[in-house]
């Protein structure tokens, strides 16, 4: 068997309709995995991509900002026939405002989706994996702001820094029980999430000149790291936050 072969494995990918989630779902499917896409918008294109790669696609509608959504999502995935093999916590949101003006609503919206729901998805998925006695892989999508402070995104920085922390904590608790918990920290990626940054000519130029690779990332740039962290190639990798950033953090 190839080190990177995901044949016979199921991957639950949140926020699979667009951007990084869509690219990761397709990358995992091309490596052999069947996909459960989770999101609040239709996932038509992702479903078509995955099916064109010869894999199955199951869609689960969920608003992950809602309390209790995590356990329901994993329950529905299992009921649809998926196995608790791979979980990619990709769904995320961002709110931008000066910290002096930042509202409690913008704090809660980001923390609920980007951190609270991720923890409870990990919990529900790990319970299922342990009950099924399957070796499992969890991949959280972190950020440069898991390492750096950023500006005007206080709830996002809090959530992504917290996400790095719980990735390490869960790795400590579950590494010996057959569950790998790791994260990918994307650099600056061309998606809806960064549309505001890219349309600000000055910010765009500042960001671009700091990236050693000399370009923004494309969503597909995240797929290889996801296949690695989902596959037997990473069986001894636990609690790592893997930057895929064109060299941004090395600068
Ligand atoms: P995106 O294109 O905006 O995708 C975000 C995804 O999350 C969408 O599928 C979105 O669904 C989903 N989502 C947001 N809130 C949700 C909710 N309450 N319930 C269910 N799904 C929800 O942005 P992206 O850049 O691909 O972001 C994916 C992940 O990468 C996020 O965790 C983000 O923080 C992280 N990231 C992005 C960058 C970057 O430069 N783009 C860098 C570092 C980390 P809808 O389409 O329905 O809103």
Descriptive account of the structure:
The chain has 251 residues and is of the alpha/beta class. It has a single domain, classed as 3-Layer(aba) Sandwich (Rossmann fold), CATH 3.40.50.720. It contains eight helices and seven strands; from the N terminus they run βαβαβαβαβαβαααβ. The chain has a seven-stranded parallel β-sheet, sandwiched between helices. Helix 4 packs parallel to helix 5. It is globular. NADP nicotinamide-adenine-dinucleotide phosphate binds next to helix 1.
Question: Could you outline the blueprint of secondary structure elements for this entry?
Answer:
Layout: E1 10-14, H1 19-30, E2 34-39, H2 44-52, E3 57-61, H3 69-79, E4 86-89, H4 104-132, E5 136-141, H5 154-174, E6 179-186, H6 195-199, H7 201-210, H8 223-230, E7 241-244
Parallel strand pairs: 1-2, 1-4, 2-3, 4-5, 5-6, 6-7
The structure holds NADP nicotinamide-adenine-dinucleotide phosphate.
What is this structure, in a nutshell?
With 251 residues, the protein is an alpha/beta fold. The protein is built from eight helices and seven strands.
Name the descriptors.
251 residues; alpha/beta; 7-stranded parallel sheet; 8 helices; globular
Count of runs of 4 or more consecutive helical residues: 8
What composes the largest sheet? 7 strands, parallel
Rg from C-alpha positions? 17 Å
CATH fold description:
Rossmann fold
Helical content class? 40-55%
Uncertain stretches: none
Q: What would you give as the CATH superfamily?
A: NAD(P)-binding Rossmann-like Domain
Q: What small molecules does this complex bind?
A: NADP nicotinamide-adenine-dinucleotide phosphate
The averaged pLDDT comes out at 97
Oligomer: single chain
Strand content: 15-25%
Could you tell me the number of beta strands? 7
Distance between the termini: 38 Å
SSE run: EHEHEHEHEHEHHHE
How many structural domains does the protein architecture include?
1
CATH architecture term? 3-Layer(aba) Sandwich
Structural class: alpha/beta
Order of strands across the biggest sheet? 3-2-1-4-5-6-7
CATH classification class: Alpha Beta
């Amino acid at each position: 068997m190839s080190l990177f072969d995901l044949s016979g494995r199921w991957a639950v990918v949140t926020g699979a309709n667009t951007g990084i989630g869509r690219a990761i779902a397709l990358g995992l499917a091309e490596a052999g995995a069947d996909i459960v896409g989770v999101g609040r918008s239709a996932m038509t294109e992702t479903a078509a991509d995955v099916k064109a790669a010869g894999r199955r696609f199951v869609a689960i509608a969920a608003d992950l900002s809602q309390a209790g959504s995590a356990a329901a999502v994993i329950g529905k995935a299992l009921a649809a026939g998926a196995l608790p093999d791979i979980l990619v916590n990709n769904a995320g949101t961002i709110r931008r405002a000066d910290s002096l003006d930042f509202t409690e609503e913008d704090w809660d919206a980001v923390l609920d989706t980007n951190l609270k729901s991720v923890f409870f998805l990990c919990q529900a998925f790990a319970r299922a994996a342990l009950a099924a006695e399957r070796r499992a892989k969890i991949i959280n999508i972190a950020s440069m702001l898991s390492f750096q402070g950023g500006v005007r995104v206080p709830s996002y920085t809090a959530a992504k820094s917290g996400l790095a922390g719980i990735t390490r904590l869960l790795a400590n608790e579950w590494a010996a029980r057959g569950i790998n918990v790791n994260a990918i920290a994307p650099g600056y990626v061309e998606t809806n999430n960064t549309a505001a940054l890219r349309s600000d000519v000055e910010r765009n130029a500042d960001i671009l000149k700091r990236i050693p690779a000399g370009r923004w990332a494309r969503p597909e740039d995240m797929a290889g790291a996801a296949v690695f962290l989902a596959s037997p190639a990473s069986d001894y990798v636990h609690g790592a936050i893997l930057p895929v950033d064109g060299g941004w953090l090395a600068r």
